[in-house]
Amino acid sequence: MASVDELRARIDIELAEAWTLSVATRDGEIVGMLAVKKAERVLDQLYISPSVQRQGIGTLLLKRAMEEMPAGFTLRTASANIAARAFYERMGLNLLSEGAHPRLGLLVCFYGWKAG
To answer: What is the pTM of this model?
Structure first.
């Protein structure tokens, strides 16, 4: 697992290169994050704090991605993350394939969304 310093450095690099970042806040604290690469049509990161999951924040952020990339996008999530997979499928994304994560080698699912 990456250290806090490694994660901070990655965020700086991703913001400089491609990310458009949105955050969700509650009571002044960041509780969710959405990072998209619009030019590549990729939803790269969607994170919701466990303490506020199942309260609509993920839905709001995913809808934001749909608005920002109306021509469609892809994403990947861990195959073992059953909750995330069910969420994406409920929200209308389609499972495209399964394979290895390009850097980590873990099994991931690739999903796609297109406005219908």
So the answer is: 0.84
